[in-house]
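Before the break, one more example. Copy the sequence into your notebook; we will annotate it together after we see the structure.
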Amino acid sequence: MEIARKLNLPELLQKKSFFLFGPRATGKSTLIRQQLRAEATVIDLLDSRVYLKLLDAPHELEEIISADRGRIVVIDEIQRIPELLNEVHRLIESKKLTFLLTGSSARKLRRGYANLLAGRVWEARLFPFIYIEVADFNLDRFLRYGGLPAVYLSDYPEEELNAYVNTYLKEEIMAEGLIRKLPPFSRFLRTMALSNTEIINFTKLGNDCQVPPSTVTEYVALLEDTLVGFLIQPWKESIKRKAVSTAKFYFFDPGITHMLSGTRVLDRNSNIYGKSFEQFIAMEIRAYLSYRRKRDELRFWRSTHGHEVDFLIGRETAVEVKASRKITDRDFKGLKILAEENVFKNYIIVSQDELNTRKQNFQALHWRKFLRELWNDSFTENV
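Here is what the structure looks like once it is written out:
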């Protein structure tokens, strides 16, 4: 099955050269084949012959490009040879070529090389499948197994997830020298999976996985750098009630979260189900903001007394997520308290309740309607 992704590479590359970052197996190579097959020179650094040639002689990049004479040049997995960015810089300036540089880790590129391209190359992200991309979207399947293309489309999704976790999250990260000992990192991954969607407590996490809090900090940064996880920062500008100042952590995909935590069955009435539904909405909003090139920040709000709203989109929209099939007035409590700040324009509960209601600025929307309206730009500034 070929699924049309929302990210439009030709449209992006008309404007500028781009880094295209995304976790392993989100479909970057497939997207390139689908959208740039006819007009791009593709240099795959996972091809050992190409890799070894350019590792030994980065200057031969120009020769490879000249032989193909493509106006757009794709370098797949650029983080394998960060030194190539020197050549990319030179060729953008001297030959006016357009580059798409893909990668699944920004860690190596941050060691000075990416700074060379400041202003010359913009950044885009590719995420797992989202609702609007999949014709017969199955929410229960997505919440259990996630949206990695090879997993979502597989007849054996659990086998695919198991292979991903064991060959990439553990073996490859260790092989690259990013961690020194696998057992503590494995304990950390499981602990983080059990804490998915929650505010990070570095001391408690360190105690749970038997490592110092400083190591937890390093591991969290590693998950961010390899795009396996992301942080949502708190909104701290509330005046009437003091807000917490620590970020929440999310894995990039619910299937990966369940494989790491050992979830076998996703019970509709469990706390884990509610977390997975919240994670799903976080992924959808994050993908929307990225694909549409929106500058609105995605944040959350929690007061020191425990009042909370799950997501804040810029200064426009506050979103509370409930997995329940029946919304009551009590569910609006956090939104109503936040509304006292007089900052946001829209206050929305996203749930599985089929009844959509509105009273002034407060709405209750079924998740499908919310996502359709999100992609119609109903909840963000038009910039």
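The mean pLDDT is 91. The two ends are 35 Å apart (CA to CA). Try to locate both features in your own notes.
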